[in-house]
Protein 1
Amino acid sequence: MGAAISLRADFDAEGVRRLARKSKHAAQARRLLALALIYGGGSRSDAARLGNVTLEIVRDRSRPFAGRSSKLLTQRRLRTVFGKGKILAENDYDAFAAAYDADNETNAWNAYYERPAILALVGDVAGLSVLDAGCGGGAHAAALLERGAVVTGIDASAGMLEIAQRRLQGRARLLLADLNEALPFTDKAFDLILASLVMHYLADWSGPLSEFNRLLPEGGRLVLSTHHPFMDHASTGRDNYFETYSFDETWQRGGKDIAMRFWHRPLHAMFEALKSAGFQIDIVSEPQPDPEARTLFPRAYQSLTTKPRFLFFSAVKA
Ligand SMILES: C[S@@+](CC[C@H](N)C(=O)[O-])C[C@H]1O[C@@H](n2cnc3c(N)ncnc32)[C@H](O)[C@@H]1O
């Protein structure tokens, strides 16, 4: 996540290590450390200590080349795949913001399934102060504004926020923020928090959920949608459903291969995380798509009406 890093011929590994130490974003820090290791020297055990780092390497803008590495992050291997160019981390929405937003705007999964379902769950928001966490290009924020809410949107991608800014034309407050960090708002700043399709990017729900709890008054509501754990587990082919684990996918958007990393967690872990953060679940929903999708997207409609895809929660601050 975050902006791409341009490499320089006079690569300053110590400088990059210093930047990594100062970085407040764990993913960015790991990416910077990986860079310092690759170009500034280090050992196999240094590489292993970084854990899973996925880097997408673009040697030449006209011919994107995706290289993946994790614990195989050895210098020899990386020297063979790295040229000078741009290095992008996983889930780098900046790299495909416009393409993502255009697809999200009209596709079956977002426009005819997730958005109508979560907005129905949210219900009447007139006069409420709403935080749209992981707001992306602002499609939900626009709908909330139309329904009379006062909206703040946060996202970790500056590229997605630019799109939201263009869409919302100053009608919502938009801020760059990472849900893995403390959020820049005072206690009880919002009546309602919406988190659409962002929780499955988070390795640990406890910090973000306790921040959401802090930002709500008693009785305030959190409404979220996330990958259905039966859907993502089935697609990964992993053995143990009960583990919380990350898995990678490659998305094709805007003519590029985009490295994505998601977190699977079992159903009970979601319930426990919400409860431990001080929420009482009032609705669990496995909705059906908008009936219009039947003619517009027959294959997606068939899939969405027969297989789990996303899971929706409404939870109240106890
Ligand atoms: C699948 S998109 C969903 C966007 C929008 N909520 C929607 O449903 O249309 C996921 C969004 O979450 C953002 N995101 C991912 N990880 C995040 C994090 N740690 N903190 C804040 N935003 C994050 C991404 O930048 C992206 O805009």
Protein 2
Amino acid sequence: MSDPIIEYKLPLYLPISNLEKRYKLFKLPNGLLCFLISDPTEKIASCSLTVATGAFNDPENMLGLAHLCEHMLLAGGSKEYTDPQIFHEEIGKNNGSFNAYTTAEQTTFYFEIPNTNIMTSNAQTADKIGKSTLTNYSIGKKEGDSVLPFEKLLRIFVSFFKAPLFKRSLIDREIFTVNSEHDGNKTSTMKILYHATRLLSNKRHPFHRFSTGNLETLSIIPRLEKIDVQKRLKKYFLDNFTVNNNMTMCLKGFDSLNLLTKYAIKHFSDLGSANVANNNDRDRKSTRLNSSH
Ligand SMILES: [Zn+2]
């Protein structure tokens, strides 16, 4: 039997401006920490996912791999949604936005859409099925039914972290994007000062290393060393996106805590199962190897 959901009853000291908001903090059986914020006055529905991994986990011969992995997760398609454009199109259709960033020890992905789209879709759906409440029909719909835009986006978004494809044909494009970000950084005084601090730091600490990645570290060196970049991306993902106690998810919107909890359970409960299966398999293989001599 799987572990139950663990809810944390923490005292949250809220400013008067936040008294309308309702919060819930709990851990799903897969170890994903979930923080929900429900606010009837909220005009945006949003979701973010943060993983406790970043540039400090870059392999020595592929600096920038964590950053490239962040790019590829949102751009490289998933087993469920093989066309990587679907997410971008859905976001565009709903006037939303998305982004992601990688720091030394953290990688964060997020998207948001205005509530107006949800309200419109709700009104249409409510007309069709003769209901007028906002919360009765978004859970449990089959694919192809009138799934609300936010839930549809949630499903696509989370699929990237369940079974990402890291399509080989898109890797070079994302390396170029990472390289242009690095080129842009070269003209930013703040970034230059940051890199100067990095260069002055202890050479044995990972902070000293280059972390953004560029054509040299992600394309030229791997080619010279015959490194398969796609394999490295998959390995980095399986090693570091383990979910159990290293990932946090936040949902925020005008929906009730009850509905946001249902979204969390429905879409995030099986997150990490591919990594667990793979790591178990790897553990078994290494046990076999160790016991063979
Ligand atoms: Zn980037």
